[in-house]
Amino acid sequence: MENYRECGKKVKDVSLQELRDRLAEFARVRGWDQYHSPRNLLLALVGEVGELSEIFQWKGEVEKGLPNWSRDDKEHLEEELSDVLLYLVQLAHVCGSLILAAALTKIFKNAKQNTLSLTLLT
């Protein structure tokens, strides 16, 4: 586990493209491409979101930054967040989606809709 921690400390900023490429290589080397259909990746993603949800299930509201959480709890959270991100990146890749561009477009679209809604209310 120490090796994992050291690797994480050295990575300051990584692109989604690099993640996507590393995931694709990881799957290719192991012969997993045959299983990485959009449906299978979506179901795996949903399963990981469920595991992420379990971490919070009985905690009630928690403070930003999780100041009362143990190091082990925070590490577990990071692992589950990572699983969700990795499956999402893989799913976007096999669907041919440019997820970052789509995300920015969605932010702008929501901002425009919210501005329009506020204008209509006044």
UniProtKB/TrEMBL annotation:
<dbReference type="InterPro" id="IPR004518">
    <property type="entry name" value="MazG-like_dom"/>
</dbReference>
<dbReference type="GO" id="GO:0047840">
    <property type="term" value="F:dCTP diphosphatase activity"/>
</dbReference>
<protein>
    <recommendedName>
        <fullName>dCTP pyrophosphatase 1</fullName>
        <ecNumber>3.6.1.12</ecNumber>
    </recommendedName>
</protein>
<feature type="domain" description="NTP pyrophosphohydrolase MazG-like">
    <location>
        <begin position="37"/>
        <end position="95"/>
    </location>
</feature>
<comment type="subunit">
    <text>Homotetramer.</text>
</comment>
<keyword id="KW-0460">Magnesium</keyword>
<keyword id="KW-0963">Cytoplasm</keyword>
<dbReference type="InterPro" id="IPR025984">
    <property type="entry name" value="DCTPP"/>
</dbReference>
<dbReference type="Pfam" id="PF03819">
    <property type="entry name" value="MazG"/>
</dbReference>
<comment type="function">
    <text>Hydrolyzes deoxynucleoside triphosphates (dNTPs) to the corresponding nucleoside monophosphates. Has a strong preference for dCTP and its analogs including 5-iodo-dCTP and 5-methyl-dCTP for which it may even have a higher efficiency. May protect DNA or RNA against the incorporation of these genotoxic nucleotide analogs through their catabolism.</text>
</comment>
<dbReference type="GO" id="GO:0000287">
    <property type="term" value="F:magnesium ion binding"/>
</dbReference>
<keyword id="KW-0479">Metal-binding</keyword>
<dbReference type="GO" id="GO:0042262">
    <property type="term" value="P:DNA protection"/>
</dbReference>
<keyword id="KW-0378">Hydrolase</keyword>
<dbReference type="GO" id="GO:0005829">
    <property type="term" value="C:cytosol"/>
</dbReference>
<dbReference type="GO" id="GO:0006253">
    <property type="term" value="P:dCTP catabolic process"/>
</dbReference>
